[in-house]
Specification:
Helices cover 47% and strands 0% of the residues. It has 78 residues and is mainly alpha-helical.
């Protein structure tokens, strides 16, 4: 469910096109470090979690990010 949220966020807010597979990294999706930081800032605000700068890099996959968010207790309202 968190992965679906991430995919939708990237498509709608950051205009990422094409296949957004769980094992793709931010770099694979064509996102630079500034955009990656913006994604994390958005997630912190929406999911009420703290993401340290070192936790998410351009090489972080969406699956890894989703796992980190779950481990931090991020919960999506249904």
């Amino acid at each position: 469910m968190i992965y679906d949220y991430l995919r939708d966020l990237l498509q709608e807010s950051f205009q990422v096109e094409g296949e957004i597979a769980p094992d793709k990294s931010f770099a694979d999706l064509g996102l630079d470090s500034l955009t990656t930081a913006e994604v994390c800032d958005n997630l912190e605000k929406q999911l009420k979690v703290t993401i340290d700068d070192e936790e998410v890099t351009s090489q972080t996959s969406l699956r890894e990010l989703a796992d980190r968010l779950r481990s931090k207790g991020a919960v999506l309202s249904t």
